């Protein structure tokens, strides 16, 4: 019995490439993008971002400029970490 299956292909490792975004989303960039989208839509950005972080409800963030999708890609604890880090870097006093 003959087979049309080529066994030589079994000797080679196949390579599977997953397309990765050009750059990984950074919490700082996302917060700034969302802030601008909220301002453009006439919302109070700080109140809306705080509402989202506390509740996890994406309805606080508009779809404008893809802001809602962007912020949902970042864990809320990472957003808090970014905000606290940024605040402390700007307000720490060297003694």
TrEMBL record:
Species for this entry: Desulfuribacillus stibiiarsenatis
PANTHER family named among the record's database cross-references: UPF0297 PROTEIN YRZL
Name of the protein in question: UPF0297 protein BHU72_08850
Superkingdom of the organism of origin: Bacteria
Protein family membership: Belongs to the UPF0297 family.
UniProt cross-references to InterPro entries, sorted A to Z: IreB (IPR009309)
Pfam families for the chain: IreB
């Amino acid at each position: 019995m003959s087979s049309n299956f080529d066994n030589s292909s079994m000797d080679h490792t196949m390579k599977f490439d997953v397309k990765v975004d050009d750059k990984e989303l950074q919490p700082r960039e996302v917060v700034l993008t969302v802030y601008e989208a909220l301002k453009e839509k006439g919302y109070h950005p700080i109140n809306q971002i705080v509402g989202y972080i506390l509740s996890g409800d994406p309805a606080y963030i508009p779809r404008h400029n893809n802001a809602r999708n962007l912020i949902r890609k970042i864990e809320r604890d990472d957003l808090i970490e970014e905000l606290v880090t940024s605040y402390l870097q700007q307000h720490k006093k060297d003694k």
